[in-house]
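Question: does this match?
>
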Amino acid sequence: MKINWGTGILIFLIVFLLAAAGFIFFASQQGINLVHKDYYEKGVDYTHKMETDARSVKYRNAFKISNSATALVVNIEKSLSDKIDSGSVILFRPSDSGKDIRMTVEPKTSEIQFPKKDLLHGRYILKFSWYSEGLKYEIDRPVNVQ
């Protein structure tokens, strides 16, 4: 049987529409993982974030991250830990926001441990933020859990 040009165009359109419908179905099944639930509101306050980052640069090397056999350990230098009024540490998992881990940091804390039983192997981003004398500071650092 010979296919004429009209039948060829019809077959192409049907295949194209089926492929488009399949892609739309696939895309609608994908999860949306934003860094924060109020992601867009945080974008409006970006100037405050830039000021916080500029203030925090001098503390970039004030903490060390190490992998022990049972935990991911964050050691904070004494010069910084003495200044912390309050704070928090978030281990953000870029591939799955459901695997994020949050901890509060008490004043004068010099070590934070995340048990490895709560962590997956792979990449995390450590977001360490604290307040000192009413000012907010924040450091982000990539971490590989082994």
In short: Strands lie at 63-67, 71-76, 86-92, 101-105, 111-115, 122-132, 135-145. The two ends are 62 Å apart (CA to CA). The chain is about 30% helix and 35% strand. The chain has two domains: 1-30, 39-145.
